[in-house]
Amino acid sequence: MTRRIVVVSAGLGQPSSTRLLGDLLATATTDALLESGMEAQVEVVELRELAHDLTNTLLAGFPTGGVGRALETLAGADAVVAVTPVYQGSYSGLFKTFFDVVERDVLRGTPVLLAATGGTARHSLVLEYALRPLFTHLGAVTVGTGVFAASEDWGSAGEAEQGLTARVRRAGTELAALAGARASSGPRDPFADPVPFEELLSGM
After folding, report:
1. In whole angstroms, what is the distance from residue 91 CA to residue 57 CA?
2. Which of 10, 88, 100, 107 is the most exposed place for a label (fewest CB within 10 A)?
């Protein structure tokens, strides 16, 4: 059975260390799924390409441009890798704007791996005080191991047991376990479980 892994990357540069971290985590998750006998399909939502459409979506009150397609991709995920650069001590505005337009319950029960990039390891706690509360509010199941990559991590990824490579592998393995345990549902149908008519009448 194939699991759909969606990477949501809020990196702005090209190339982007944020996108690179997302790709590494998706690869680690895919490898772990393959080891357990499952295949994976990886899709990437690049938020930099949706910046203008996200602004229009907020103003219009409904998805415009590529935002609708991105939301459909997210809704069909069996697992999500959410990765953002750190700005002003928290996730980026672009990252927050995207998840502001995600409808309620779309991510409920979905495993999410939290990741961030920044210039210094002093920002690593952003995973716990900013990202984890956001996705808990959205009802997602957050992976225990989050991954923060500072500038110095890219030159020493394989030098120590606690280096970036080891953290990526551990987080990917945890996400794969959660993704493998849940049924692949495809895009969620908001009308799939309607409230019975009698229950609606009882509340009148």
Report:
1. 20
2. 88
